[in-house]
């Protein structure tokens, strides 16, 4: 194994910077829950991925929940922060600008195929400057360019009181607190907060909360947690209420949605 696993969150490191001889380089970290890589940027693009654990990636006024079945592309020069929701293995692919698999300056959420997952694992084990490393780099870039994209972006406000509320809900999506109770906590009236949600996010408080609850549901379900337990943890009155909201949002029941993806991943691995 040629890649050192870091257990800290220091970001001003350049030893893994990609270049024309190494279009893809990997930074590996094993981090405890609630670890934070504070806002930083670099000259190369990055695919942020965790084969184990769930990440929260924030860029500007948006945030994404990234479970093991997904990764997120962060373009060069984009300021970003990464927080572990649970204990996680972070495997960041640093990609030279000349080989960027996507155009533009927008973050893109990717579905991680079984093939891509295994190639990332192989790159972790490959010897530096080896022919195997070079081949894996090319294959990874090709697979990334064909990866399916997923829209799990969650908008965040800039208004201080509303941002305090939203960040607290991101940390505890199952909180049963009403908008009135949140208003008392952040020092605003309920009417003011309702107006700010509509103005800054284009959603009601209930709609925004449903959005983050569904985003947090993905990593729980992929770990095999029973739907009844997922529903309870996220503040739903029943499993059926959770399933109904999931189907309304994604067009499929959660069991169907995730079974289809696991089946597709399994077929890709067999092929």
Keywords for this entry:
alpha+beta, Jelly Rolls, five-stranded antiparallel beta sheet, globular, DNA-binding transcription factor activity, DNA-binding
Draw up the topology in text.
Elements: E1 5-6, E2 24-31, E3 36-40, E4 45-52, E5 55-59, E6 62-66, E7 70-74, E8 80-84, E9 88-95, E10 108-111, H1 114-125, H2 131-145, E11 149-150, E12 153-155, H3 160-171, H4 179-186, H5 190-201, H6 205-222, H7 227-233, H8 239-250, H9 254-270
Parallel strand pairs: 1-2
Antiparallel strand pairs: 2-9, 3-8, 4-7, 4-9, 5-6, 5-8, 6-12, 7-10, 10-11
Q: Can you count the beta strands?
A: 12
Helical proportion?
40-55%
Question: How would you name the CATH homologous superfamily of the largest domain?
Answer: Regulatory protein AraC
CATH topology of the largest domain: Jelly Rolls
Domain HTH araC/xylS-type: 160-260
InterPro entries: AraC-bd, Homeodomain-like_sf, HTH_AraC, HTH_AraC-typ_CS, RmlC-like_jellyroll, RmlC_Cupin_sf, Tscrpt_reg_AraC-type_HTH
Pfam families: AraC_binding, HTH_18
Organism: Glaciimonas immobilis
Compact description:
With 271 residues, the chain is of the alpha+beta class.
Describe the structure.
By secondary structure, the protein is an alpha+beta fold. The chain has two domains: 5-150, Regulatory protein AraC (Jelly Rolls, Sandwich); 158-261, Arc Repressor Mutant, subunit A (Orthogonal Bundle), CATH 1.10.10.60. The chain is 42% helix and 22% strand. It is built from nine helices and twelve strands. It has helices at 114-125, 131-145, 160-171, 179-186, 190-201, 205-222, 227-233, 239-250, 254-270, and strands at 5-6, 24-31, 36-40, 45-52, 55-59, 62-66, 70-74, 80-84, 88-95, 108-111, 149-150, 153-155. Strands 1-2-9-4-7-10-11 form a seven-stranded mixed β-sheet, covered by helices on one side. Helix 1 runs antiparallel to helix 2 (131-145). The two termini are 27 Å apart. Mean pLDDT is 89; it is low at 264-271. This is AraC-like DNA-binding protein/quercetin dioxygenase-like cupin family protein. Residues 160-260 form the HTH araC/xylS-type domain. InterPro entries: AraC-bd, Homeodomain-like_sf, HTH_AraC, HTH_AraC-typ_CS, RmlC-like_jellyroll, RmlC_Cupin_sf, Tscrpt_reg_AraC-type_HTH. Pfam families: AraC_binding, HTH_18. One of its GO terms (molecular function) is dioxygenase activity.
């Amino acid at each position: 194994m040629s890649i050192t696993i870091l257990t800290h969150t220091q970001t001003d490191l350049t030893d893994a910077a990609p270049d024309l001889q190494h279009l893809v380089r990997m930074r590996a970290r094993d981090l405890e829950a609630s670890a934070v890589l504070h806002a930083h940027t670099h000259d190369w693009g990055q695919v942020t991925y965790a084969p184990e654990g769930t990440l929260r990636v924030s860029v500007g006024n948006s945030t994404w929940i990234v479970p093991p079945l997904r990764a997120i592309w962060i373009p060069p020069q984009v300021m970003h922060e990464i927080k572990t929701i649970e204990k996680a293995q972070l495997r960041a692919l640093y990609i030279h600008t000349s080989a960027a698999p996507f155009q533009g300056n927008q973050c893109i959420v990717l579905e991680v195929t079984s093939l891509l997952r295994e190639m990332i694992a192989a790159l972790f084990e490959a010897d530096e400057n080896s022919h195997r490393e070079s081949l894996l780099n090319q294959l990874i870039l090709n697979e990334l360019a064909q990866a399916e994209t997923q829209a799990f972006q969650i908008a965040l406000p800039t208004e201080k009181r509303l941002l305090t509320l939203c960040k607290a809900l991101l940390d505890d999506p199952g909180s049963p607190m009403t908008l009135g109770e949140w208003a008392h906590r952040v020092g605003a009236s309920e009417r003011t907060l309702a107006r700010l949600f509509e103005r800054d996010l284009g959603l009601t408080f209930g709609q925004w909360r449903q959005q983050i609850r569904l985003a947090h549901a993905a990593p729980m379900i992929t770990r095999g947690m029973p739907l009844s337990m997922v529903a309870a943890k996220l503040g739903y009155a029943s499993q059926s209420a959770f399933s109904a909201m999931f189907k309304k949002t994604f067009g499929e029941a959660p069991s169907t949605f995730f079974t289809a993806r696991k089946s597709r991943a399994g077929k890709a691995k067999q092929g």
